[in-house]
Amino acid sequence: MRLYNLQGKLLKSVKTKSGNEPQDIAVTESGDLIYTDYINRTVNKIKNKKIQEVIKLLDWIPRCVCSTFLDDLLVIMDNENDSRTKIVRYSGSTEKQSIEFDDKGEPLYSSGPFVKYISENRNQDICVADWGARAVVVVDQAGKRRFRYTGNPSTSKRGKQSTTRRSFEPCGIATDSQSLILIADRKNHHVHILHQDGHFLRYIDNGDLHSPMGLCLDSKDNLFVAEWGTGKIKNIQYYK
After folding, report:
1. What percent of the chain has pLDDT over 90?
2. Which domains does the chain show, CATH number per domain?
3. Residue 138: strand pairing partners
4. Would you list the DSSP string of 163-213?
5. 0.90 cut: is pTM over it?
């Protein structure tokens, strides 16, 4: 895991405690780094250059993680045979909430070894980009489903050529200071912007994005996009 400044200079680098590749990383409100180790089935915190194991799972595998505005952790996890996926909220090492099914008892999220990214919105909604379902699933703080977004059935323009959208492939997801939801769409080479209630607003599609995969926003709503395949991270000003 590496920390760079805005000019691309490497400031520091740290290895996981186990030596395994981290599945996902997040930064807490207090500035600590969180990472998941899916091989050791742990969620870990790096604080003052020391690595602390925060959560140890037995029958579940931690995948992606985010830190909430109240400093809880939301962890997406799969069971051992990839037949179930759920979100668990932790306060420290204590489980506070589990989110897996809707009001009809149906799974909220796809099963299988598909990456699912997670972000908490300002209104405390929990937003998940479910690559396996080709959908973004948003639930409220209590875990009740609010909406499901499966892409905008329109065309996009890359340069002078108009191209029909390919299948929606949501990857990274982030929310900004205005509670807008931003979703990386890898196959279509752009980022979707949604209202907090799920209405499509517009694309970020400046012709310079190639397979956007990871997203994050800083406190000033600067958008950072990690591209699949190129190894590049791009800083985009998206407010008009």
Report:
1. 80
2. 1-100 (2.40.10.500), 114-240 (2.120.10.30)
3. 127, 147
4. EE-----EEEEEE-TT--EEEEETTTTEEEEE-TTS-EEEEE--S---SEE
5. yes
How far apart, in Å, do the first and last CA atoms of the chain sit? 33
Reported as a single tens digit per residue, the pLDDT across 129-160 is 999 999 999 999 999 999 999 998 764 444 43
- At 165, the pLDDT band (50, 70, 90 cuts) reads low
State how far the Cα of 37 lies from the Cα of 189, in Å rounded to an integer: 29
